[in-house]
Write a structure and sequence with these properties.
Layout: H1 9-26, H2 31-37, E1 60-68, E2 73-81, E3 84-87
Antiparallel strand pairs: 1-2, 2-3
């Protein structure tokens, strides 16, 4: 949090960084799979922020598979505060 009680950039990036791990694990591509196949996770990030997120507020990160092929999964993430889009 920053000095005004708002979620700072680093916190948003941390949440978006964890989202693919949760999604890949749910799809059966967890750490054991990545280790056995010697694959990794690589990220390109472009984040847009909307309303400020305040200390104590509840948020949700929603992930969506945009595309996939034999070697890649392209994901998009949205951070929601209630029903309002907070970052994507």
């Amino acid at each position: 949090m920053d000095g005004n009680g708002h979620m700072n950039f680093a916190c948003c990036v941390l949440l978006f960084d964890a989202a693919p791990d949760f999604l890949c694990k749910a799809m059966g591509f967890g750490a054991a799979h990545r280790h056995s196949t010697r694959t990794g996770v690589f990220v390109a990030d472009h984040t847009l922020y909307r309303p400020e997120l305040l200390l104590g507020g509840k948020i949700c990160v929603r992930s969506q598979v945009i595309g996939a092929d034999a070697e890649r999964i392209h994901l998009a993430h949205q951070m929601l505060r209630g029903d309002a889009l907070a970052a994507h």
